[in-house]
Design a protein that fits this description.
Length: 136
C-alpha cells in the first residue's frame, strides 16, 4: 500500500471513529488532546453494550484499528508523523505512527485496553507519546 493510500485510509478510519462514537454512544470526538480520554470510555462502553461479541476477533480488529486511527490522527495534528504498515511478520502485520526515531502503536494500546483491560490507558499512552516526541 502506498503512503498516500495508507494516509487516506487512516483519515477515513479516524472519521469513522468519530461517527461511530457519536451514533453508538453519543460521545463527541473532536481531534483534541482532551478527547483522547473519551476513547478509553468508548472502548469500555463496547464491552458493556456488546458484551461477548465485542471480543470477537473481527470486531476487536475493527474497533482497535478505527480508534487507533483516531488517536493517531489526533497525535498527527499535534505533532506530525507518518503512518507505517509493517508487513515483516506476514502472520501479524502491524500499524504504527512514525515520527523521528519513535514509532507508536495506537491500535495496539486500544487492543490492550479493550481485550486485556491493560494497566495503561489510551490517554496515558498518548501523553507518553507526546512527551517522547517533545523531549527530543
Amino acid at each position: 500500500m502506498k503512503n498516500e493510500e495508507l494516509a487516506q485510509l487512516m483519515k477515513d478510519s479516524a472519521n469513522d471513529a468519530v461517527t461511530i462514537a457519536n451514533d453508538e454512544f453519543s460521545i463527541p470526538l473532536d481531534y483534541s488532546k482532551q478527547s483522547i480520554s473519551l476513547v478509553d470510555d468508548i472502548l469500555l462502553s463496547y464491552l458493556k453494550k456488546y458484551q461477548d461479541i465485542a471480543l470477537d476477533d473481527k470486531a476487536v480488529f475493527t474497533i482497535c484499528n478505527v480508534y487507533g486511527a483516531y488517536v493517531g490522527e489526533t497525535f498527527k495534528k499535534l505533532c506530525g508523523g507518518q503512518w507505517f504498515y509493517d508487513e515483516s511478520n506476514v502472520d501479524a502485520p502491524a500499524l504504527f505512527l512514525v515520527i523521528g526515531d519513535h514509532s507508536f502503536a495506537f491500535a495496539g494500546i486500544c487492543y490492550q485496553r479493550l481485550v486485556n483491560n491493560g494497566d495503561m490507558t489510551v490517554l496515558e499512552y498518548f501523553e507518553q507519546a507526546i512527551s517522547q516526541h517533545t523531549s527530543h
